[in-house]
Design goal:
Blueprint: E1 4-10, E2 17-25, E3 28-37, E4 41-47, E5 55-62, E6 69-70, E7 74-75, E8 86-90, E9 94-96, E10 100-106, E11 119-124, E12 127-133, E13 137-143, E14 150-158, E15 161-172, E16 179-182, E17 188-190, E18 195-200, E19 208-214, E20 222-226, E21 230-235, E22 244-254, E23 257-262, E24 266-271, H1 274-304, E25 328-330, E26 333-339, E27 342-344, E28 348-351, E29 361-369, E30 380-381, E31 385-387, E32 395-398
Parallel strand pairs: 9-15, 17-24
Antiparallel strand pairs: 1-4, 2-3, 2-5, 5-6, 5-7, 8-10, 10-13, 11-12, 11-14, 14-15, 16-18, 18-21, 19-20, 19-22, 22-23, 22-24, 25-26, 26-27, 26-29, 28-32, 29-30, 29-31
Length: 403
């Protein structure tokens, strides 16, 4: 293939002659070319291709001769000068970044063409990266990087003959060292809460297999293969058994060869929540006690400032503003007698025989300091006394300046 050959046809007839060349495809002859010559021979040149190999003959026609004869059939066999090229990739066509990559392009010669020296080329993405002449092998070697991924061609060329073969190379990124993190601040978690452990890598070709471990067990607690740089292991309803130290692994694979990295260790502390119950109970009791005390104080305050009066018909108290009436003085204290709802003075009260039932009720005495330096905002209130007045009798109610 690639050579040129000549078909030579000769005759004893007297020129000028017409030489006709034929190619046989089975029993049927194909007329290739007519050559008119003043010589007793003619030549037809052929460019050898893969389909050139066939049977050929020629025919001669002379002037004044009504007949012609075919020559003997000549068989032409076309043979490649070299074999189909072979493209070898080591260690394989899928490798990890950082591995040594070797691409080898080779051909073998047939016995009839041992002297042929073809041009050998290794081409990546239509660009020749290695070209070698007069040899049967071309080699390209490099440390694999991501940009070495692509389609490679092995080409062998001699004259017009050219053969090629293709293969694709894939360079994968090994996983980086993973980082294990807990979603809880300070790696502390309360019983009953949910704990999420995250295992993440910065780089790595997919898929990546993640495994989570606890140092007390050899088997993985959780395993998942993902097309992602992070995996999460969730523990719901954490209890004391989940307390301990954890780690994770990340790995990816090329041609059954694993690249595995392990993370740092993370200690998870599970805290007991029972003490919260005691705090809640204590706080609740304190609130109840405070509420009770506040209620008593409000009741006492309401009694002190009650402005109700007794209704004769149904015995209920009707509200009436307190009235401050100047009372008697005893020492430096002003003694004011107060019936609920009214201020009564002086220091002694005379309730005559004509006193009516309206004077019945609770009585107390309030002592109020007087003078320029006295604290007039502070009153001294005595005990309450309930007075019942039968009709027709007189009573004297005398106050005291003691608290």
């Amino acid at each position: 293939v690639g050579d040129s050959i000549e078909l030579h046809c000769a005759s004893d007839e007297i020129p000028p002659l017409t030489f006709i060349f034929f190619k046989f495809n089975g029993p049927k002859a194909q007329r290739l070319k007519d050559v008119r010559s003043n010589e007793k021979f003619a030549v037809h040149q052929l460019k050898v291709a893969a389909n050139t190999g066939k049977n050929y003959s020629c025919q001669v026609q002379a002037s004044g001769i009504n007949y012609s004869r075919h020559s003997k059939i000549v068989q032409i066999t076309v043979q490649d000068p070299f074999s189909d090229p072979v493209l070898e990739i080591e260690p394989s066509d899928t490798i990890f970044e950082g591995d040594s990559l070797t691409i080898r392009c080779m051909v073998n010669f047939t016995p009839l063409f041992l002297g042929v020296q073809p041009q050998m080329m290794i081409v990546k993405d239509a660009i020749a990266i290695t070209t070698i002449y007069n040899t049967t092998t071309a080699v390209f070697t490099t440390t694999a990087a991501l940009n070495d991924t692509g389609e490679y061609e092995c080409m062998a060329k001699w004259k017009e003959a050219m053969k090629m073969t293709k293969r694709k190379v894939i360079v994968k990124v090994p996983v980086s060292e993973p980082t294990l993190k807990s979603t809880r601040t300070g790696d502390n978690v309360l019983e009953g809460d949910t704990l999420d452990l995250s295992c993440a890598v910065l780089k790595g070709s997919y898929p990546i297999t993640y495994k989570f471990y606890k140092v007390t067990t050899d088997a993985a607690l959780y395993q998942k293969s993902l097309n992602a740089t992070e995996a999460v292991y969730s523990i719901t309803s954490v209890n004391s058994e989940h307390h301990g130290t954890y780690s994770c692994e990340a790995s990816n694979t090329v041609n059954q060869r694993n690249q595995t990295k392990r993370s740092q260790y993370v200690t998870i502390t599970v805290k007991d929540t029972s003490w919260w119950k005691y705090i809640i109970i204590s706080v609740s009791l304190a609130i109840l006690v405070a509420a009770a005390i506040l209620s008593l104080c409000l009741i006492r305050l309401c009694k002190n400032k009650d402005i109700s009066q007794v209704d004769e018909s149904d015995g209920t108290h009707q509200g009436e503003p307190l009235q401050h009436i100047q009372g008697s003085r005893k020492g430096s204290m002003e003694i004011i007698y107060s019936k609920v709802g009214k201020m009564i003075h002086p220091s002694s009260i005379f309730l005559g025989a004509d006193a009516d039932r309206n004077h019945e009720g609770d009585y107390t005495n309030i002592m109020q300091p007087e003078g320029n330096g006295a604290n007039t905002d502070r009153n001294h209130e005595g005990d309450y006394t309930y007075i019942t007045l039968p009709e027709g009798k007189a009573y004297i109610f005398t106050g005291s300046d003691s608290e």
